[in-house]
Design a protein that fits this description.
4 strands; 3 helices; two-stranded antiparallel ribbon; single chain
């Protein structure tokens, strides 16, 4: 009998997904100190939570004690048509694979050269 990989993913999804009943991340007394982007993200998360459409990774599994957040951007050069921003949120205890993949991509694309990377070349 052949196993459908989708069946395995469907079974795995509830174990690794956190479905919060309410989202309030920012401290009310500090709202004026947060950037507009951070406030907009919280509003969006709260709206999706109220619609029961917010699915976040369950990062408290398997002994994880903290969270790693990686970000990157592109499109700053003059010939670029778009600016892009990406974020990866993962369990710190399991971030080895993220570091390993980033290191491999940077090496493949020659992003570790000092002419392309400022201080962020620390992954090399």
């Amino acid at each position: 009998m052949k196993v459908d990989p989708n069946d395995e993913l469907v079974a795995l999804a509830p174990r690794v997904t956190w479905k919060p009943t309410g989202v309030s991340l920012l401290k009310e007394e500090l709202l004026d100190q947060y950037s507009p982007l951070v406030r907009m993200i919280e509003i969006h998360l709260a709206e999706k939570s109220a619609e029961k459409k917010l699915l976040l990774p369950e990062l408290r599994k398997d002994g994880n004690e903290s969270v790693a957040i990686f970000s990157d951007y592109g499109g700053e050069h003059a010939s670029s048509r778009y600016r892009t921003y990406s974020f990866l949120v993962c369990a710190w205890n399991h971030s080895y694979y993220a570091f390993d993949s980033m290191r491999e991509l940077r090496n493949e694309s020659d992003c570790n050269s000092s002419s392309k990377v400022g201080q962020s070349g620390a992954l090399s």
